[in-house]
Design goal:
Rossmann fold, single chain, 289 residues, alpha/beta, 10 helices
Length: 289
């Protein structure tokens, strides 16, 4: 399904005093689609195969969130700041309206943005993101260091047993940076993970459920068939259905052979679901296989 002729350019732009890296796929004249990656070792490059598959129909903008990938580390992290970074990036690129896709952490930011700024979002894709109140921890997450890239791939595959090996290797290889001692670690500010442990990256259920009810654009919630109990965001039976019922105009799509990291675990099924939903956008082209 990937478009082997897709064009992509890497750019850096100053947003809120930070250097934000983003990948810009496809023809700028096509309808825009902004994709927000999740936490952990996910970065803009994690979505290369997805963006390449859709670049014949959309201009796809995939930023590295502050503190991740090639974007600057920041003095502070919160979901509100990530949301504001996204809006200012859209403003800087002249994107007044866009389809928006977010995975996990990026999905929560995406639905909070769609709720708060309905005039900016034409269609919303929520991938493995649900309202929840994280257990706040006061300790710091240990920095993960690997002797080789292969060691990191093995650990990533242990955590994501449903993953497609090719796409997972691509994510890991681009998500690591070489340390001075010859070992490898993730391209992520340790303070970003600390902010997650403190609960700063989650709006919380008191904000999230009312926000979901205020979303006005067509929406799809995509989740993995094995999400429940496999590290996914569908933590309780029926939560996906409850989310879909809360959002006024929401489809629900379950992806087989996948848990939380759908773009890596079942890329073919995930791309098919995206194409079907986004094909209904005004100005979009018909799907091409």
């Amino acid at each position: 399904m990937a478009n082997t002729h897709a064009t992509v350019a890497d750019h850096f732009i100053t947003i809120n005093g930070l250097s934000i890296h983003y990948r810009d796929w496809g023809d700028p004249q096509l309808p825009p689609l902004v994709i927000l990656h999740g936490g952990g070792n996910s970065i803009s490059r994690s979505w290369d195969h997805i963006a390449a598959a859709l670049a014949d129909r959309f201009r796809i903008i995939v930023p590295d969130l502050r503190g991740n990938g090639e974007s600057s580390w920041a003095p502070e992290y919160s979901w509100q700041l990530i949301l504001d970074d996204t809006l200012k990036l859209m403003d800087a690129l002249g994107v007044s309206q866009t389809a928006l896709c977010g995975h996990s952490l990026g999905g929560r930011v995406a639905y909070m943005l769609a709720s708060g700024y309905p005039e900016r979002i034409t269609r919303l894709v929520i991938v493995e993101a649900d309202p929840f109140d994280p257990e706040v921890r006061n300790d710091d997450s240990p920095i993960e260091i690997y002797g080789t890239i292969d060691d990191a791939v093995v650990e990533a595959y242990r955590r994501q047993p449903y993953a497609d090996k090719n796409t997972l290797c691509h994510e890991v290889e681009h998500g690591l940076k070489l340390l001075e001692d010859g070992r490898w670690t993730w391209r992520m500010d340790p303070a970003f993970q600390t902010a997650a442990l403190r609960g700063y990256l989650n709006p919380g259920t008191k904000l999230e459920w009312p926000a979901l009810a205020q979303i006005r654009c067509p929406t799809v919630l995509i989740y993995g068939a094995h999400s429940l109990g496999k590290g996914g965001s569908m933590r309780k039976p029926g939560v996906a259905e409850t989310i879909a019922q809360t959002i006024p105009n929401c489809q629900l799509i379950e992806i087989p052979d996948a848990a939380h990291d759908l773009p890596n675990e079942n890329p073919t099924g995930f791309i098919r679901a995206l194409r079907a939903f986004l094909a209904e956008m005004p100005g979009s082209l018909e799907p091409s296989e």
